[in-house]
Specification:
By secondary structure, the chain is mostly helical. About 60% of the residues lie in helices and about 5% in strands. Strands 1-3 form a two-stranded parallel sheet. Helix 6 runs antiparallel to helix 7. InterPro entries: Sec-1-like_dom3a (IPR043127), Sec1-like (IPR001619), Sec1-like_dom2 (IPR027482), Sec1-like_sf (IPR036045).
Length: about 300
Amino acid sequence: MSDFSYFAQEVVLSSEQDSFFKANMHENFGDLGMNIKKMVDEFQQKAKSNQNIQTLEDMAKFVEHYPEYRKMHGNVSKHVTMVTEMSRIVDERKLMSVSQIEQDLACNNVGQAAAFEAVTNELNNDSMVEIDRLRLVMLYALRFEKENPQQLELLVNKLASRSASYKPGLVHTLLEQAGTDKRTGDLYGNRDLLNRARNMARGLKGIENVYTQHQPLLYQTIESIVKGRLRDVDYPFIGNHFQHGRPQDVVIFIIGGSTYEEARTVALQNASNNGTRVILGGSVVLNSAKFLSDLEEIHRLGRINTFQ
């Protein structure tokens, strides 16, 4: 199954037409790898049974099931090839190491000094891709903006020296748009007493998978909606929308774009069958590259306005 041309073309995946994709589209990379192995094992068993054709009846059965067998062969080849390519990218960019630091920064699991050391070490890693360096520094900046500004400047300067494509001032543009003074809500779970208690309980319990510990803020927002505890300070509304109990249908639209992780959160929420259906929309679907591209445009326009 090694000689396929999927690497050089775009492959469209549909949850309506591809049962394996439907079952695994929200799985983490480790579980996806194990499920790929199960699918390959099942295909190999079917292939062995097709080799044992001795009678006309066996031949008739093979001909009858051949279209299904051929479809399964193509599906297995497609998914194995894609996961192989994903694995190559993960290894090449050292994403397991990068991801663990990203998770720690986003989940408020690490102190400022330890985070500074971890990000500095990654910036010094010659195998790091520029976008990964930038993402780490930005996550650090969002988390520790107020704690040690001098060390943040050290990281920004090191980033600029290691990344030829870095736009000077881009990290500060991020903080101007989404820094502590611009944010509402409790992004890191360290403002609200209930959220601090929840984080403490999670720390005592331990993390099952360090690579999937992060939950987007949208998760807490949906949880608050379902329980009728949405803060009107952050989400003002007219009238008593919760007088009839738990809402059955919720439409969430995120201006600026929603992420794949947020889409996964909504999908898992709807799959839980708790009586509330959530529909997620946004002006665009974001990944880190798209987000950084939009941020660079804001940065560029800001520089133009400054010189006018």
